[in-house]
Amino acid sequence: MDATKEEINIALHEAQVAFLSYKNTSGKKKAELLRAIAQEIDALGNTLVETVMRETNLPEARVISERARTTGHCRMFADLVEEGSWVEARIDTAQPNRTPAPKPDLRKMLIPIGPVVVFGAANFPLAYSTMGGDSVSALAAGCPVIVKAHPAHAETSGLVAQAIQRAITRTGMPKNIFQHLYGKSFEVGQALVNHPLTKAVGFTGSLAGGKALFDIASRRAEPIPVFAEMSSINPVILLPDSLEKDFEKTALLLAASITQGVGQFCTNPGLIIAQDNSALEKFTTKLHDEINKVLPATMLHQGIADNYHKRLDQTLSQQGVKVEAQSDSKASSMQGQSLIASVPASEFLKNHLLAEEVFGPFSLIVKCKNLQELHAVVSHNSGQLTASVIGSEVEIEKHKNLFNVLIEKAGRLIVNGVPTGVEVCPSQNHGGPFPSTTDSRFTAVGTDAIKRFARPVAFQNFPHALLPDELKNENPLKIWRYSNSEWGKN
Amino acid sequence: MDATKEEINIALHEAQVAFLSYKNTSGKKKAELLRAIAQEIDALGNTLVETVMRETNLPEARVISERARTTGHCRMFADLVEEGSWVEARIDTAQPNRTPAPKPDLRKMLIPIGPVVVFGAANFPLAYSTMGGDSVSALAAGCPVIVKAHPAHAETSGLVAQAIQRAITRTGMPKNIFQHLYGKSFEVGQALVNHPLTKAVGFTGSLAGGKALFDIASRRAEPIPVFAEMSSINPVILLPDSLEKDFEKTALLLAASITQGVGQFCTNPGLIIAQDNSALEKFTTKLHDEINKVLPATMLHQGIADNYHKRLDQTLSQQGVKVEAQSDSKASSMQGQSLIASVPASEFLKNHLLAEEVFGPFSLIVKCKNLQELHAVVSHNSGQLTASVIGSEVEIEKHKNLFNVLIEKAGRLIVNGVPTGVEVCPSQNHGGPFPSTTDSRFTAVGTDAIKRFARPVAFQNFPHALLPDELKNENPLKIWRYSNSEWGKN
Predict the structure, then answer these.
(1) Are residues A37 and A77 in the same domain?
(2) Is A430 part of any domain?
(3) Domain boundary at A382, A398, A415, which?
(4) What's the CATH number where B200 sits?
(5) CA distance B330 to A109
(6) Quick check: B415 and A225 CB within 8 A?
(7) What is the domain-level CATH number for residue A405?
(8) Which of A382, A415, A448 corresponds to the end of one domain?
(9) Domain check: are B212 and B317 in the same one?
(10) How far is CA B366 from CA B243, B247, B251, B399, B415, in A?
């Protein structure tokens, strides 16, 4: 049942009340909560795995590994907030005798931004949904979370929400720091983003969906940030010498990356850019053989499958586009047939539609006459989550100028690897220039994702007892701070 | 002469070309540039001081101190980028034998975002204009800057722009990392913000102006961030015991803060909140005496003076508003008469207009019947740059719940001080919730202002030679990094 306007209004008011106490919760207590959530998710056992499999058609191994990623990021953020240095504490002590004017005592740290609305993602029913990267980083920051369950896995979402509630009860946290609403209609999302008490939004999904939420948020009386992770074709550039030598290995690597999870990853390599020569021919033949072997597989839900087939037909009907490989015919309308097409660079450069995402197991090979054309294709692309270059050490060095262009287009640059497989760690950046996200200055994966839901506050001339522990002279939490222009734990 | 669309287009293309080399400039070279700019501004000597005085009506002492602040922040950012740790380097080295999947080598740092458009501020012809806080932090980050000169001090702006150009030539930097355009019409600003190569905007000025630029930027095909510092009435809460004892000292402190620089500061205390009792009466009488002594002074320009008088008339005509003190009648329409009014809290709470900024030497005393009403008034306010509480140590402790509310409203909390006088240092936060700024997550003053113009990029499995120096194993720049979950200079 879709949440009503009244229910949404109550949810936000309850979130705000919960916020006023939760925001002052210590890192240690928040860590207990996040670890309890991980335990409760694990305790759902096979019920959760079976529910995800039934709702999303994802295979068991994938569901189990996604669950591990989800509980893993709960524990990672628990460690982060327990350690505590993430608040970026800065201290400048007073200089009362400074001339011409005395210097006041000034200290600064990050505090939570307020209630955060999270939209579950279709393609990550666990790791980017109810207790996904947005929810966990918002809760870690000290923000209450309101999740709108993804309609395609509403039961999974409900199970995880119950686990979270059990963890909240068990650790004695305010009940309404986490709330779970249902909504199939656009109006539910709209009302959540428009509510005056909502302070930030997390979203993973389509460009149309993310951009619509961004537009609503920007047009509010008080605009709020939207972190939408939307659309990326993740170009992979194949340099010629390495392709000549390793065409087989490269084809295997790319075939696996393109078809993994029926291509339903935001980091799926949707564009392969290479010089049109015999090496590329051999690579394409090998890729053809590999793709042909792929069994038909059911996509996440009918809407995603329909959209894939529509975008595929549209792409294949463009000038110059040629099918290079396809897996066995699909058995049902819910299945995603793996497909590789190619197009001459000259056509690609004329047709913006070919640079737009086809969400599914598809990749387009752009054949370039020479290196100049290859550079033109690279420059032509808009913002991406990732950009990869595959080449020998000598070639990579020779073509290092490519990175000078790619770095303006992407949030993560990869050498001799594929974009799928997003490591969850402090140095991860899952983000990038528009339209891959709505804010290239933040990551959606890894510890720094917490920064999206925090803002700095300075404390001037505060009585010592009223300072947050993070800013007290004796550094009771033993965190890293920048104090009087020195880094340290003093 | 207003820049034409064609000139704006050429400027952005030239900025982009300059960016492609400037972005790779070392911190050491950028530091040389910023120090040379400080020297060249100093070398303008009396010519600059006289020009500012003539164009803005600001007194000599203020102009000289503002110049020192401007060259001071150039040197502060020079030190910051020379030291280099601001890039937030993170390193996670590979674990090729990890199971179930090997961990790749992943490293991350901040890189400059691209060409930045800066709008000079009327009230800070030096420190927040041509080489103000926006320009200096963007240049420090590695972004080219295009300044639209403020029409009210176009000659000052031109002089500073020439000084910057001399510093660029002297240090051998790309000429177009700094460009200077003129524009009185809104269309010039609009075209600058709309240009596809513009990647961020810095603005200090009115709510209407800042919000208009934000709206343009959000509605672009590729939305970009706007850092607009706009509107704040900086509430000052006077607690009763301290007011009873120190009404005289407090009145002197506030009179000076309200009238300083003809009240033309974004941190001007425009709202005084106190319990209506004999202490407040004595305070108001003393404030009356102080304000009466203030000589009429000329405002920055006719537009600001006209707006001040209009907003003053509008405020004074509201239900319940009473004049408590005013300086000698203004001698000319360009002069800003200092004025203090009061209003019962019950009226204030009903009338949103009274919570809006009156830019000039004005403050409104909100008289509260009791502490409950005082809390209601504090909660009623929208986002602010600052909020101050003046009280005895015992009182502050007793009323510490006030800060739980104020922290949601303001970017800087002050105890026993006034909001004017913004210290430029690492722990400063000059920012706050909307409408004080368009993005509460960033500061416009202090070293962290650089973060506005940078975005993270991750490097996965990069050949060591191609990594930026900041991320190389041997840490050649000796910066602070977070490496394999340890902070250090290793």
Answers:
(1) yes
(2) no
(3) A415
(4) 3.40.605.10
(5) 44
(6) no
(7) 3.40.309.10
(8) A415
(9) no
(10) 15, 16, 15, 18, 19
One domain for residues B395 and B457: no
pLDDT given for residue A400 in this prediction: 92
Task: Write b or e for each residue in A313-344: b if 16 or more Cβ atoms lie within 10 A of its Cβ, otherwise e.
Answer: eebeebebbeebbbbeebeeebbbbbbbbbbb
**Residues A465, A363 share a domain:** no
Q: Is residue B329 very low, low, confident or very high in pLDDT (cuts 50, 70, 90)?
A: confident
The model's pTM: 0.97
Is B11 domain-assigned?
A: yes
Same domain for B163 and B52: yes
Q: How many domains does chain A have?
A: 2
A393 to chain B: nearest residue by CA?
B463
* Interface mutation vs chain B, best among A441, A462, A467, most B CBs within 10 Å: A441
Measured CA to CA, the distance from residue A419 to residue A390 in angstroms comes to: 11
Domain that holds residue B384: 235-415
- Domain for residue A435, yes or no? no
Q: Which residues pair with B236 in a beta bridge?
A: B272, B388
* CA quadruple A46, A47, A50, A52: dihedral sign: negative
Whole-angstrom distance, CA of residue B449 vs CA of residue B140: 10
- pLDDT digit string (tens) for chain A, length 490 residues: 899 999 999 999 999 999 999 999 999 999 999 999 999 999 999 999 999 999 999 999 999 999 999 999 999 999 999 999 999 999 999 999 998 889 999 999 999 999 999 999 999 999 999 999 999 999 999 999 999 999 999 999 999 999 999 999 999 999 999 999 999 999 999 999 999 999 999 999 999 999 999 999 999 999 999 999 998 999 999 999 999 999 999 999 999 999 999 999 999 999 999 999 999 999 999 999 999 999 889 999 999 999 999 999 999 999 999 999 998 777 789 999 999 999 999 999 999 999 999 999 999 999 999 999 999 999 999 999 999 999 999 999 999 999 999 999 999 999 999 999 999 999 999 999 999 999 999 999 999 999 999 999 999 999 999 999 999 999 999 999 999 999 999 8
A86 in a structural domain: yes
Confirm if A294 and A361 have CB atoms less than 8 A apart: yes
Alpha carbon of A329: minimum distance to chain B alpha carbons (Å)? 31
Residues of B in Cβ contact (< 8 Å) with A17:
none
A455 and A394 part of one domain: no
User: CB count, 10 Å around CB of A171?
Assistant: 17
Q: Pick from A397, A417, A462: which is nearest to B460 by CB?
A: A417
Flag if B400 and A466 touch (Cβ within 8 Å): yes
As for the ipTM of the complex, it is: 0.97
Greatest CA separation for chain A: 81
Q: Does B425 sit within 8 Å of A92, measured CB to CB?
A: yes
Give the pairing of strands B339-344 and B322-326. antiparallel
**A256 in the same domain as A214:** no
